[in-house]
Design a protein that fits this description.
Elements: H1 3-31, H2 38-48, H3 54-74, H4 78-96, H5 109-124, H6 131-134, H7 144-168, H8 179-184
C-alpha cells in the first residue's frame, strides 16, 4: 500500500468514525433514538440551558449533527458538512465549558474532539474514497472551505453569544441563571 492509499483509507476511517458518532448524537435529538429524547425533550432541555426557542434549537442542532455527520461519512459536500458539524459542536462545547475539559466531569472534551475532527475534514477534504471525489469535487471546491467555515463561525458566534447574554440577565425573580443551576435540574 502506498502512502497515498494509506492517506485515503485513513481519511475514510476518520470520516466514518466521526460522521457515525455525529449522526448517532443528532439522531438522539431528532428522533429519540439511542436513548435520546427527540425534538420535544431536547427542545425543553435546550430552553433550560439558554438556547431559545428550544424546539428550533434542538432541530438545528440535530440537523447539523445528523446531516453533517452523514455527509462527512459519505464524503459529500465535505466543506459544508464539516462546518455544520463543527458549529453544532461549538454550541455544545459552550454549554459544557464551565465544567472544565474532561468528559467525566461534564466537560467539553467530547464536543471539542468531534468539532476538531469535522473542521479538519472540511479543510483537508474527504480523500479519493468519497462521493466528492466520485462526483468530480463539484461540492468540494477550495473556495468553499473558508466560506463554509466563516459563515458557520459567524452564525455560531451569534447563537452562542445570544445564549450567553440570556444567562447573564436576571429572571423575573431577579435571579441570574448560571450553568451550574441549569445542570442541577
Amino acid at each position: 500500500m502506498t502512502a497515498f492509499n494509506r492517506h485515503d483509507v485513513g481519511l475514510l476511517l476518520l470520516r466514518l468514525g466521526a460522521g457515525g458518532v455525529l449522526m448517532a448524537h443528532g439522531a438522539q435529538k431528532l428522533f429519540g433514538w439511542f436513548g435520546g429524547h427527540g425534538i420535544e425533550g431536547t427542545g425543553q432541555f435546550m430552553e433550560s440551558i439558554g438556547y431559545k426557542p428550544g424546539k428550533a434549537s434542538a432541530t438545528a442542532s440535530g440537523l447539523a449533527e445528523t446531516g453533517g455527520g452523514a455527509l462527512l461519512a459519505l464524503g459529500l459536500a465535505t466543506p459544508a458538512a464539516g462546518a455544520a458539524a463543527a458549529g453544532g459542536m461549538a454550541g455544545a462545547a459552550a454549554v459544557h465549558a464551565p465544567n472544565g475539559f474532561f468528559n467525566q466531569e461534564g466537560g467539553y472534551e467530547h464536543a471539542a474532539i468531534l468539532g476538531l475532527a469535522a473542521t479538519s475534514l472540511a479543510i483537508t477534504g474527504p480523500g479519493r474514497l468519497s462521493l466528492d471525489h466520485a462526483l468530480g469535487h463539484v461540492l468540494d471546491r477550495g473556495w468553499m472551505v473558508p466560506t463554509a467555515l466563516g459563515v458557520t463561525a459567524a452564525a455560531t458566534a451569534l447563537v452562542v453569544g445570544a445564549r450567553n447574554r440570556r444567562l447573564d440577565r436576571p429572571d423575573k425573580d431577579g435571579e441570574f441563571a448560571d450553568q451550574e443551576t441549569l445542570f442541577e435540574e
